[in-house]
Amino acid sequence: MSIFNKSVEAILQEAVARGEFDNLSNKGKKIDLTDYFNTPKEMRLASSVLKNAGVKPLEVDLLRQIADLKNQLAGCEDNAKQAKIRARIELLQIEFNIAIERIQHYRGNR
């Protein structure tokens, strides 16, 4: 273990001893990694940084919207409403695909 790791470990142990982690808002709750794994692998770190800054990348937001609409569709029994939801999913999927193609194009031109 490096000196840096030992120092970090010591700092964390001292914080635990002082009880600084006792009242965390999500203590005892599972971490939801759905958005993380729905994000393309090469974009996960950047997306995490943006999310922590309160900014969502367009692609992540589109995936969330599509997932929400698919959940609505699963519980919908009205044919007209189903058609509207399917049409919205299709438009969002096209928008997502264009955004991903733009990213891939950018990466290919670097």
Give a description of the structure:
- The chain is an all-alpha fold.
- The protein has one domain.
- Helices cover 70% and strands 0% of the residues.
- Helix 4 runs antiparallel to helix 5.
- The longest helix is centred in the last third of the chain and has 30 residues.
- The protein is flat, with a radius of gyration of 21 Å.
Secondary-structure topology with pairs:
Layout: H1 3-18, H2 34-38, H3 44-52, H4 58-74, H5 79-108
Helix pairs in contact: 4-5
Characterize this entry briefly.
The protein is an all-alpha fold and 110 residues long.
Unreliable residue runs: none
Q: By helix and strand content, what is the structural category?
A: mainly alpha
What sort of overall outline do the alpha carbons produce when their principal axes are compared? flat
Strand content: under 5%
Number of domains: 1
Whole-number average pLDDT? 85
Please work out how many helical segments DSSP would assign: 5
What portion of residues is helical?
over 70%
Order of helices and strands: HHHHH
User: How large is the radius of gyration?
Assistant: 21 Å
Distance between the termini: 37 Å
The biggest beta sheet is recorded as: none
